[in-house]
Every structure is written in C-alpha cells, then in structure tokens.
Amino acid sequence: MQRPVSSLSLSPGVKMKLVNAGFQFTADLLHLKPLQLSKETSLTQQEALEVLQAVRREEGGGGGGGGGGGGAGAPPSLTALELLQKEEEMRSIVTFSSRLDAALGGGLPVGKTTEICGAPGVGKTQLCLQLAVDVQVPQCFGGLGGQAVYVDTEGSFLLQRVVDIAAAAVHHCSLLVEDDEQRVAMETFTVETILSNIFLVRCHDYVELLAEVHLLPDFLSEHPRVRLLAIDSVAFPFRLHFDDLSQRTRLLNGLAQRLIAMATGHGIAVAMTNQMTTRLSGGQSQLVPALGESWGHAPTIRLLLHWAGSRRMAAIFKSPDHRGATVQYQITSEGFRDVDQSEQPPSKRPRTQTVESSGSQRDASC
Amino acid sequence: MVVLREGMCPGLDEALVRDLRAADIKTVEDVVSSDIEELAQRCSVSYKALFAIRRVLLAQHTAFPVSGADLYEELLSSTAILSTGNPSLDKLLDSGLYTGEITELSGGPGSGKSQVCFGVAVHISYQLKQSVIFLDTTGGLTASRLLQMLQAETSSTEEQASIGGGSVKAVIVDSVSAVISPLLGGKQNEGMSLMIQVAGVLKTLAKDFNVAALVTNHVTRSGSGEVQPGLGVSWSPIPRTRILLERVERAAPASHSSLRSATLIKSSRQGGTTRLLRIHSQIQLGETFWALLSSSGSASVCVAEAAS
Lengths: 366, 308
What we know:
heterodimer, A: alpha/beta, two-stranded antiparallel ribbon, 13 helices, 14 strands, globular, disordered C terminus, B: alpha/beta, Rossmann fold, two-stranded antiparallel sheet, elongated
C-alpha cells in the first residue's frame, strides 16, 4: 500500500503544491533532488528540502528509533510482554493516604494522566500540593526522588502551606530512618531542597496555558528528573469568557493528547484538577465534572473528590486497571492523610475535620 | 493525477518522457486523453510505440471487474468470524467480529470500551492463538491488566508465556477519536480528509490482509440531549457495525457497579425489518466477563503507542 503525500506532517500550502504538481504518493518523491522538486512544484528550496527529509524519515524510520511524542514517523511497537517489563520498572507517587494508594495500586501512576475533580473546598489543590512534595521523597524510602512542575492557573499555590506539608513529610521520613543509606538521603531531603525542586509556573489565561504545554517537552528534556506535572486547574482558564464551545473542545482535545504524549514519552505523571458543574436532566440536577463530555475521555484515570455529609470521600471513577472504589480521607495541617480509624468510628456523629488554618484557599466557584 | 516517470512501463525511457513534457504531456491522464496520431507527429515519436505505451498504462491503472460468484466464493473462503469471548456480546455482533470489516465501540468515559478491547485482544491471542495489533492513543493500555485477565483463567505460567505465533487476525485501535477530533472543525480544513484517509486505510487493511478491525469512539450529546457516537455524520458510514456501551445507572450515582449495557446501533446483518435498528442486550461486564476472556498468551499481543 502506498502512502499518500497528504498524510505527511507538512503545512497545508506545501501539500497542496505537491498534489497540484501530480505527486500523490511518497514513493514518487523518493528519488528526487531538492532542486528538481522545487522547480517542478514551485516550492522554495528550503521547503523542498523539508519535504524530502520528511519522506526519507518515513521510509527509513518505521520501527526504529524515536520514542512516543514529537517527530514524524511511526512510533516503535512493543509486544505486551515488553510493555509489562517496562511497567514494572515504573513506580507510583504515594499520596500519603494509604487507603487511596491501595485503591490506586500504589499511588498516582507515572506515565499516565490523572484528573482530580471535585466541588470547591474538597481538597483538590491540597492533593496537588501533597503530590508535589511526595514525588520528591527519596527512592530508598519508596518514593521517586524526582522534581515537580506545578502549573498554577488559579493563584491558589500558597508557599506557607507547601512549607507545612514539606516539613510534615520530612518529619515523617526522618522517623522511618533505619540504615545509613536512608540517613544519607535524609540530608538532602529538607524543606529547602523540597522547595527548590518544585518549578512553579503561573498562567493567567488559556493561551498561556497552551503555550506552556507546548514548551514543556523541551523543558522536560533539559530536566530529566521531573516526575510530576501538576496543573491546577485545567478548568478555570477554559471556563472564563469562552464563547466558541466547539473551539474549546478542540483545544482541550489537543491539550489532552499533548499531555498524554508527555506522560508516556518522558515518563512523568500528569495530575490535573477540574471543577464541577451542574447538569439538568429531566427536572433533576446532578453534579458532574466540568469541561464537557468529550473531556471525560482525555484523562486516563479520574478521581472524584466529594462530600458525603461532612466527610470527604475520594472515588475512583475511571481507571483502566483498577476497580472503582471509594475511600475516605481528611486534610490535616500536615496535608492529605487517611482518616484515622481509632478517632472516627463509622457512625452518624458529625465529624470535626481539622482543616488547615493558614490559607486553605477555596477554589474559584463554578 | 499520476505523473509520468521513466520506467513506468517498457518503452517509456527518459528521452521520451522529456519529449512528452515538452509537448505539455505530464501525466498519465494526458497520455490517455490525447490524440495519439497528433502526439506522435508533435513529439516525433513512432505511433506504434506511443500506442503500446498507452495500452500498458491503461492496463496498469484500470480496475478489473469481478463476477459476483467469484466474489462470493472468495468471501466464503477468506472471511473468518472471531469470537470476542463473551457469549452475549457475540450474539449482539452476530456471532463475533468479522474479518474484512470495521466494528465500532462507542461509549462515555468509564463505560468499558478499553476493557472490552483488552478482553478481545486477550481472547483472540490465547484462545484463538492469533496475533493482535493494538494501537493505543489514550495511554490507557496497561500490560498488568492484560496479565490480570490472563491469570484469572490459567494460572500456569507456561501457558501464559507460550508464543501464539499465528498471523495477525485483528487490529484494535483505542481510540480513533482521541487523535482525530482535535483536527475536526473550525478553520482547519484538513481534519475531515485525514479522517477519511484513516478510514480508507483501515478498510483496505481489513480487506487485503483479512483482519478484523475494532475501533473505539467517544460520545457526544445531540441537540435533544441524547447520547450519540462522536466524529460526526461523516464517520458513521465507515464502521459496518456500531455498538454503544453505557454504564447501568444504579440508585446511588457514586456506587461502583461493574455492569454495562451494550446496544447495537447499526448493523448490516441484524434486524429483520428496516425499522428494527436497536437491539438491547444487557451483558454482565463483571467478574464473569473477565474470567471468560482471561486466557491468552500475552507474548503474542503487539502493542503500538501512537501520539498525534
């Protein structure tokens, strides 16, 4: 089967000139020199050179080099057995809530996109901050020892809160120190280093967010230790003043694909937060995640944080390799934690949640 | 428009191509549609040579008719029906996935499309001992889930590791809409043509190599609020059979039931009268489904991750 020219990744003007000159398949282009091509198709020399490079890459590439994202050419194929081996090497980011980790199979998986949706104040930002600290836990303690990129679109990144969470994490790890290796690791795991390993980006509207996501692959290549990309939140810039909904859907789909490419290509975990909106169906209203039906397909895993009375619950709504499950959690001054069983028996008695004092910012309302 | 190149047919050498170019004959269409006598005089080439070249070019580029009986014979001998591993899904699909055709599974997020694809891949790979090519565009393919499905049925690691070694019988694309829907609409005028190209390639693949193509699609809400498969009206004639998967709504919306319902939306075989296009069938996509599908040699499933 021959490959048509229009399936190469070139600009539409170039493709049109090629087709008008009669070149339908890449096989026709293989044996041409750039000068000949530019004369026949009235392309500039530079464009002709690019076209021929693209064609040669397609023919020569195939199963060979070049990982997932970026660049033309077929991505390499693996057998399921090889994929299994690769997966066993990839670890997860613990959330410090052991029940949620158990439900997720170890924590937030690396190499996949996860969406955290919930009503305002339920703890999405807190979970993101916790993950940004947790990804840095040294490997000898079971963490990833990586860095984090935090994209903040709502302005809810509060430094003091991160300091509290980081201090609690350091304290928690220092209690676990058993041998010399861990002692050495603890010297590099301090609040200062934690803060220095979080790269914060502040985006004010959706254009900045899209631009940032475009530039991230280069950044990730320069900083290979990054293991988490947290976007808080994806919904906020896309819900403000967006008139053309079909354009929004297109942009979101493109964004989702780029994030998936980054997650698999660079081996990072992508966590995004989403807001909730109300859907009216037949006289009844229901809280559903925002950004529409097609956005629901974008993240690989969906976590729904909701209130059940006065308790906070986390539900796994969509996951390809784990059953749906609901666990309870709480937000303490130390961060995102399990509900302590001894204190809180499952009764109807209203619970007092110890909500963090210094600035738990309520997420922007729907 | 096929450009004339030397070596395309015997007798068409570089000198002749240049002469023809000089007479403004650049493509095969020009050769076929022009007057040979006049052309022979203009280019000072022999009439016989040109006539022979034209005959060869015509023969190269025509499609030959096939008699209905031959076609039927060929279809009977080459089409295979691949069972999906789940009896009720097979019944919905008229006994399984047909090779040479595209079957589409659409559904909302979390409705089970990827899970059904995994199950089918695992079943074909182990039970039927054939290879499967799995194109994953969503990042949702986890080999550990495939292994889980495999282990539920056969716990012997020897069986698990045995190489299937059969030819490729199925191509599963999960999902085709994730990479195509960013291209559709708006000011981009290529999206539609790229989508139809992908459809054309899939169909030709299915027919020429005798494989069953299974694709997944997302859903959108129509004007009246009804759920319908995505990618629009242009995509709808492409798959031969379409199935819509939905979560079965229980009383408490946050409860996690593993029950899903599959509805046949379009089929060229089912439905006696022209009105009967919807056939509902509840299938249990719980543990029993996984148990039925879980026996497969994972080594013979090929996986390719595609990012747009």
